[in-house]
């Protein structure tokens, strides 16, 4: 017997029309080099319909890839919806990738048009001649920068001029919710970046997940500040969820300095802000004397949140960081650290420790832990470690046109995330490390993440990254790379003394080196690959 419900396609067009009809008076705020610019969802919807007409006028094919090279702004939000609502595919380009990676991505995706902020033209223009399929470049004037003189090959247009030349169009009803709506490439820490293609259905369901109370609880009453870039894992779903609910959006633009972010939280009365740990490390110091009482959620992901950072926010603003886990391949929400009701009476130390977990898996997503060597499933016992594998309706099933895809998926269809994790009996996930970042000492694993978090609990430490360095006896031993806070002095002996009693004796770093800054990846994570290259020939004291 079959159910008798209507077979209604789930897609971006519904999210769009909901904002247009129900919340036309709600506001989108963009922080630009010219200053704060405000628009409404009603105005944004009309412009998005005009943009759809522009794509037709430019001759972009029916499923053409529409690339963006832009900061978070209302214009970028228009580009999140116009392609998908016309059957095309929005493709956000990570502006922090290496030039050769950008060339690879644009050509691999077969982008036909690139929309670029004028402030970023200088970064894009040297690569224009390497793009095989790009026929048009559309420049969005964000107040600074200039279009280089050496214009070659593609036609160059002004965004506002194009919008003014057309009339808004109606969107045809979505015929297939499994049709591609957007695509994004992984940050490419090893090899070329890999393409993840999101369907209308996956974005719709992920948006609903972001709206649930046990995830981020996005609602119309929220004022959302996605510090996370729109080219990083769909801005963690916040751009779509804001449109679906009519939440006020605060787009930070190019200025992601701690002072500016703290100022926006205060002046715009932000309720939900989201970014990677390195962002919040800087913002914490800028909150003194500010009224940020509007905040209800400080969401953090991308890498493990140090306990000292989360507790620092709890001490200063009364609100600990809400840790979440996900990746480009999971759209990205996979889990969020909400505390079960019967666990909320725990001690401060117990709750602080629980908040260091990646939390509970999202409804709709399943996870399991598998021994990375044998593939055997490990127990949820709070001790057994395994590679985190996930599956669900907004989890990638393969990579776009990539013969490496089989390496990342199990024979029975689970995504191999590359994260090593432990699950306790309550189902809370504790990320131990990335498989490639674990330190294997004498056949036993040392978690670089756990060591980093303990080191960063030292008041004099600003940042710390731990990598494995070759050792003749133990195969590898941990090397701690430490950044000292401004105005402080610190010795390696002090760091090691601080760690005594906090980690197992055999986990103690063989050496502490002091560096000016931990290098970052294109999405703000610690780049341990860079550190491993830098210290590839380093000889540990015990190995001399």
TrEMBL record:
Gene Ontology biological process: fatty acid metabolic process
UniProt domain AMP-binding enzyme C-terminal: residue ranges: 451-525
Record-linked InterPro entries: AMP-bd_C, AMP-bd_C_sf, AMP-binding_CS, AMP-dep_synth/lig_dom, ANL_N_sf
AMP-dependent synthetase/ligase domain mapped to chain residues: 19-400
Keyword Transport annotated: no
Molecular functions (GO terms): ligase activity
UniProt cross-references to Pfam families, sorted A to Z: AMP-binding, AMP-binding_C
CDD domains membership: ttLC_FACS_AlkK_like (cd12119)
Keywords (A to Z) from UniProt: Fatty acid metabolism, Ligase, Lipid metabolism
Signal sequence region: none
Gene3D superfamilies in the record: 3.30.300.30, N-terminal domain of ligase-like (3.40.50.12780)
Family: Belongs to the ATP-dependent AMP-binding enzyme family.
UniProt protein name: Unannotated protein
Biological source species: freshwater metagenome
Lineage: unclassified sequences, metagenomes, ecological metagenomes
């Amino acid at each position: 017997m079959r159910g008798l419900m209507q077979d209604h396609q789930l897609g971006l067009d519904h999210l769009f029309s909901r904002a247009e009809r129900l919340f036309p008076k709600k506001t989108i705020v963009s922080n630009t080099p010219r200053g704060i610019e405000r628009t409404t969802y009603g105005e944004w919807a009309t412009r998005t319909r005009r943009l759809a007409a522009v794509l037709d006028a430019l001759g972009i094919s029916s499923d053409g890839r529409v690339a963006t090279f832009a900061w978070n702004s209302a214009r970028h939000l228009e580009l999140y919806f116009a392609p998908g609502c016309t059957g095309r595919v929005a493709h956000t380009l990570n502006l922090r990738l290496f030039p050769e990676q950008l060339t690879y991505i644009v050509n691999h995706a077969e982008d036909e048009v690139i929309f670029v902020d004028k402030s970023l033209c200088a970064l894009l223009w040297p690569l224009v001649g390497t793009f095989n399929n790009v026929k048009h470049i559309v420049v969005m004037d964000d107040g600074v920068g200039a279009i280089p003189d050496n214009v070659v090959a593609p036609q160059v247009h002004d965004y506002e001029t194009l919008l003014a030349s057309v009339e808004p169009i109606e969107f045809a009803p979505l015929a297939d919710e499994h049709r591609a709506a957007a695509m994004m490439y992984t940050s490419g820490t090893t090899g070329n970046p890999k393409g993840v293609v999101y369907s209308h259905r996956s974005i719709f369901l992920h948006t609903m997940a972001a709206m649930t109370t046990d995830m981020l609880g996005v609602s119309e009453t929220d004022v959302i500040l996605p510090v996370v870039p729109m080219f990083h894992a769909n801005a963690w779903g916040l751009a779509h969820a804001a449109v679906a609910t009519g939440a006020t959006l605060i787009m930070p633009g190019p200025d992601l300095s701690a002072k500016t972010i703290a100022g926006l939280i205060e002046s715009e009365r932000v309720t939900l802000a989201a970014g990677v740990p390195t962002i919040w490390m800087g913002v914490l110091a800028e909150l003194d004397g500010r009224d940020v009482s509007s905040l209800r959620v400080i969401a953090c992901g991308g890498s493990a949140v140090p306990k000292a950072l989360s507790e620092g926010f709890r001490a200063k603003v009364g609100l600990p960081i809400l840790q979440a886990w996900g990746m480009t391949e999971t759209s990205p929400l996979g889990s969020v650290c909400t505390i079960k009701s019967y666990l909320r009476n725990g001690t401060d130390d117990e709750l602080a420790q629980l908040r260091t977990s990646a939390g509970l898996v999202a409804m709709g997503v399943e996870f399991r832990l598998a021994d990375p060597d044998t593939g055997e499933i490990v127990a949820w016992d709070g001790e057994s470690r395994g590679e985190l594998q996930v599956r669900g309706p907004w989890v990638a099933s393969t990579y776009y046109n990539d013969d490496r895809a089989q390496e990342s998926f199990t024979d029975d269809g689970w995504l191999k995330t590359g994260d090593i994790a432990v699950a306790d009996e309550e189902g809370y996930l504790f990320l131990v490390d990335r498989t490639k970042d674990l330190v294997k000492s004498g056949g036993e694993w040392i978690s670089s993440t756990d060591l980093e978090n303990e080191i960063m609990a030292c008041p004099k430490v600003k940042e710390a990254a731990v990598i494995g360095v070759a050792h003749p006896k133990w195969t590898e031993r941990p090397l701690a790379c430490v950044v000292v806070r401004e105005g402080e002095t610190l010795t390696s002996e002090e760091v090691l003394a601080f760690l005594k009693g906090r980690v197992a004796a055999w986990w103690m770093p063989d050496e502490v080196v002091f560096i000016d800054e931990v290098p970052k990846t294109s999405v703000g994570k610690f780049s341990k690959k860079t550190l491993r290259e830098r210290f590839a020939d380093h000889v540990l004291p015990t190995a001399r």
